[in-house]
Amino acid sequence: MILIIDFGSQVTQLIARRIRELSVYCEIVPWDKDILKTKSLSEAKAIVLSGGPDSTRIKKSPTVSKRIFDLNIPILGICYGHQLICKLLGGKISKSEKREFGKTLIRKNSKNQSPLLEDLFKKNIEEVWMSHGDAVTELPAGFVELASSDTSSFSIIEDAARRVFGVQFHPEVFHTVNGKKFLENFVKIANIERNWTPFKITESLIEKLKNEIGDEKVICGLSGGVDSTVTALLLNRAIKKNLTCIFVDNGLLRKQEADQIEFLFKKHFKIKLKTVNAKNLFLQNLKGVSDPEKKRKIIGKLFINVFEREAKKLKNVSFLAQGTLYPDVIESTSVHGKSAATIKSHHNVGGLPKRMNLKLVEPLKTLFKDEVRKIGSELKLDKTLLDRHPFPGPGLAIRCPGEITAKKLSLLREADNIFVEQLKKHKLYNKVWQALVILLPVKSVGVMGDARTHEYSCVLRAVSSTDGMTADFSYFKREFLSETSNKIINEVKGINRVLFDITSKPPGTIEWE
Ligand code: XMP
To answer: Which atom of ligand 1 is least distant from the CA of 389?
Structure first.
């Protein structure tokens, strides 16, 4: 396996993801853990040092023991990690005169046949993604430069004898055109077998769950989405008799959600399922609340209250399982609990109350959506469910800016259902990553059948993405938009205007709240 030492970059998990896409197992450890003592280090066949927001020029900036260079395994430094290697081994780092941000061309300028560059630089250049304010200005002894950009030297460096490499750019991000090839070459250098497949990931998650839970009882919160369903199926394989799934019908769900879940779990998978009708509880507590963070916190707390109450009824339940994914975590706090700006308190992470009587078990916490889908497929989950668009824990509440009422939720539910059915009918559903409707708290004047209307407006939003961390708005043909808009206005009494959202993420987020 490959050990990734995390220096706090927002995209460290992408390094892990790319490496796992190469069917190689990897683990992330935060830089301030005593790395030399971790079990992972003794199993590591290579190390990657991630990027990070700090400057190596500052005293007490994040670092790692120099002894990693004595382990005789390949090391790759990325951005901050690249600079750290140079600093630790005697090179020099300075503040760049010109910062490099975004798309950058780098040129190969060495005759060196480095294995890191195998099948790359076919036309002598590569398009990479940079994001740095400091730069290496003097190499440590033993290193040579392999490539540079117009602005900076030492974009790629190597110490071939020690198999230590540094890249100033980010090979893990999608914008580095051949980023994955750089990582693949590094995996080859480390001579690691590429056998980390969905089957193995699934088996290992099940094994971990067995060890973590032992003979204790677990309840698993279901939302109808892929993540909680896959979590439940993993638990079912790991600890079947001690698992009870709880589905909270909170009134914030999509059309017919409750029926589908009952069918899938009770009839299809034959897993113990309890449905709790909590529609009134949620609506009452959300009455008069329009602040998005308050809504999220209230919903998070209510979920836990219901789970704790149900756990009490079942007696001796120790764990609450949730389908939390990595993107749910990174925007609330970083995966290792360090600083990353809070964008939203996702209901199953930051939205949880501080004191809880149940321990959390979150087997998917370091995985991305597409990995979860592969695991779901391994667990024989039906394709229509696997390909279902993501749906947020706080449900329709965060698609209904302003105060939530039963009436608004019902309009939103109908409009959402029409949009989804339209996408399916036009074979567009699987072409977008997520599609949603937002009900605006704005009424506008319209005219229908010669009469004046004064009704709500809704927004259609659809995005393409790979993991929800960044997203592009999708665009549809006029005919599709017009048919959908007409259908909503004709069939949903209470909506008389439909808008289309053309905001990507960033700067927007996918959900409106
Ligand atoms: P944003 O709106 O943050 O959404 O761009 C990114 C993805 O995450 C989903 N989402 C959530 N999922 N609990 C969840 O389980 C939440 O609180 C939550 N908030 C957003 C959102 O639907 C999108 O797929």
So the answer is: 24
C-alpha 312/C-alpha 319 separation (Å) is 12
Is the pLDDT at 14 greater than 60, yes or no?
yes
From the candidates 132, 170, 347, 389, give the one annotated as an active-site residue. Answer: 170
User: Could you tell me the CA-to-CA distances from 345 to 104, 293, 300, 338, 387 in Å, in that order?
Assistant: 34, 7, 9, 15, 25
**CA separation, residue 222 to residues 263, 271, 351, 434 (Å):** 13, 12, 17, 19
- Is 79 annotated in the active site? yes
CB distance 68 to 75 below 8 Å: yes
With a cut of 70, say whether residue 337 has pLDDT above it.
no
Q: How confident is the model at residue 353 (pLDDT cuts 50, 70, 90)?
A: low
DSSP label of 463: E
Tokens of 390: 């993501």
Structure tokens at 59: 């005293």
Q: Which of 172, 310, 362, 455 is catalytic?
A: 172
pTM metric for this prediction: 0.77
Stretch 408-414: mean pLDDT:
98
- What is the fold of 2-190? Rossmann fold (3.40.50)
Which CATH number is correct for 405-500, 2.140.10.10, 3.30.300.10, 3.40.50.1000, 1.10.540.10? 3.30.300.10
pLDDT of 487 strictly over 60: yes
What pLDDT score does 199 carry?
94
- For the chain, give every residue range classified as CATH 3.40.50.880: 2-190
Give residue 503's pLDDT.
95
Is 175 part of the annotated catalytic residue set?
no
CATH of domain 198-386: 3.40.50.620
Mean pLDDT throughout 192-219?
Answer: 95
348 lines ligand 1 (CB under 6 A): yes
pLDDT level of residue 326 (50, 70, 90 thresholds): confident
DSSP state of 10: T
In the numeric block, the tokens 């998990």 are attached to: 13
